[in-house]
UniProtKB/TrEMBL annotation:
The keyword rRNA-binding does not apply. Keywords: Hydrolase. InterPro entries: HotDog_dom_sf, PAAI_dom, Thioestr_dom. This is PaaI family thioesterase. It comes from Massilia atriviolacea. GO terms for cellular component: cytosol. Transmembrane segments: none annotated. It holds the Pfam family 4HBT. GO terms for molecular function: 1,4-dihydroxy-2-naphthoyl-CoA thioesterase activity. Residues 85-161 form the Thioesterase domain.
């Protein structure tokens, strides 16, 4: 597929996903406790559950969720710039942390949650408002009873690599309160 065609495909997929999402919010804790990670994330993708407010703030959308793998998309904009005139590294870190954590979440049964213990990001090139859509694609390396590890990459529609990351997440029981 030609890069321009792939870019348009990405934009079309994002528009379709955006149209089906609920308003941003925080899911009820009982729903989080009673759903597997896959069920929970599929609920967000179907519009049955709200996407996280941070994703709305940053313009990050879930594109694909399957066991052990997630894809999130965003389009860097002027609102994401730092004072040096390029997209702030926190934008890439947020995209990567979202994709990585959600990849681990896809592997968790009902009653289990996760939180990031460590995020290691390597920045390879700057993004600007001219970069166009980028995707953070994450895959699980390992998920055990207490620890999950995943890796991710941010690329554009041309396949150009902007950043990559690894994470270690704590896996825990979700309490009722």
């Amino acid at each position: 597929m030609e890069p321009q065609d792939k870019r348009q495909q990405w934009l079309d997929e994002a528009a379709a996903m955006r149209a089906g999402l609920a308003a941003p919010g925080v899911a009820d804790r009982a729903i989080l406790r009673s759903s597997s990670g896959m069920e929970f994330l599929q609920g967000i993708g179907s519009g049955a559950l709200p996407p996280a407010p941070i994703a709305d703030l940053m313009g990050i959308l879930p594109i694909s969720v399957e066991p052990g793998r997630t894809v999130f998309q965003g389009t860097p904009a002027l609102a994401h710039y730092n004072p040096s005139g390029v997209v702030h590294g926190g934008y890439a870190a947020t995209m990567l942390d979202t994709a990585l954590g959600c990849a681990i979440h896809t592997m968790l049964p009902a009653g289990k949650g996760y939180t990031t213990l460590e995020l290691k990001v390597n920045y390879l090139r700057a993004m600007t408002d001219k970069t166009g859509p980028v995707r953070a694609e994450a895959t699980v390396v390992s998920v055990g009873g207490q620890v999950g590890v995943a890796e991710a990459r941010i690329t554009d529609a041309n396949g150009k690599l902007y950043a990559f990351a690894t994470t270690t997440c704590l896996v825990f029981d979700i309490s009722a309160a």
